């Protein structure tokens, strides 16, 4: 639901799909942020002309949620237990869907995603904010 031609936060939704094909319940998502990781290199020729090169190295970002149950805690407890049992961690995907102001929908899929987890701070009379930080190999436009 864009307003006056501007994309606002409620125009975006994110879904995390686990390696087994199920979706990870995220609780109440309050924020989503992503940005590309790149390395830039300058090549200066003998003629003095500088060429600027960019190498794409994936994407990073965060998903912030408000804790509503133990789903995220349980997921990461399972990942940690698998690590200590000598099992490898499989990748997740993130589907980002944006309702555009012209009525169309834009979708991006982040592939080969791994997460870091901030389980939050517990304080009296406050909600518990949790953060999933992610690294993805690439982002692919779906629609």
Sum up the structure in keywords:
143 residues; Phage tail tube protein; globular; 1 helix; mainly beta; 7 strands; seven-stranded antiparallel beta sheet
Describe the model.
This is Phage tail tube protein. There is one protein chain. The protein is mainly β and 143 residues long. It has a domain at 26-91 and 113-141. Helices cover 10% and strands 52% of the residues. It is built from 1 helix and 7 strands. Strands 1, 2, 3, 4, 5, 6 and 7 form a 7-stranded antiparallel sheet that branches. A hairpin with a 5-residue loop joins strand 4 (92-99) and strand 5 (105-118).
The count of β-strands is: 7
Percent of residues in beta strands: over 45%
Mean pLDDT: 94
- Biggest beta sheet summary: 7 strands, antiparallel
Radius of gyration: 19 Å
- For the record, give the distance between the C-alpha atoms at the N and C termini, rounded to a whole number: 18 Å
Protein name: Phage tail tube protein
Could you write a compact summary of the structure shown?
This is Phage tail tube protein. The chain is mainly β.
Structural topology:
Elements: E1 12-17, E2 28-44, E3 50-66, H1 71-84, E4 92-99, E5 105-118, E6 129-136, E7 138-141
Antiparallel strand pairs: 1-4, 2-3, 3-6, 4-5, 5-6, 5-7
């Amino acid at each position: 639901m864009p307003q006056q031609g501007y994309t606002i936060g409620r125009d975006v939704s994110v879904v995390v799909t686990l390696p087994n094909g199920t979706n990870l319940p995220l609780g109440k998502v309050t924020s989503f942020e992503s940005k590309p990781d790149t390395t830039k290199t300058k090549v200066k020729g003998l003629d003095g002309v500088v060429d600027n090169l960019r190498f794409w190295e994936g994407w990073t970002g965060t998903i912030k949620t408000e804790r509503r149950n133990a789903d995220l805690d349980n997921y990461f407890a399972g990942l940690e237990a698998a690590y200590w049992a000598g099992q490898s961690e499989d990748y997740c995907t993130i589907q980002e869907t944006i309702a555009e102001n012209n009525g169309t929908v834009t979708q991006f899929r982040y592939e080969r995603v791994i997460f870091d987890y901030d389980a939050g701070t517990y304080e009296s009379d406050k909600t518990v904010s949790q953060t999933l930080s992610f690294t993805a190999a690439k982002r692919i436009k779906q629609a």
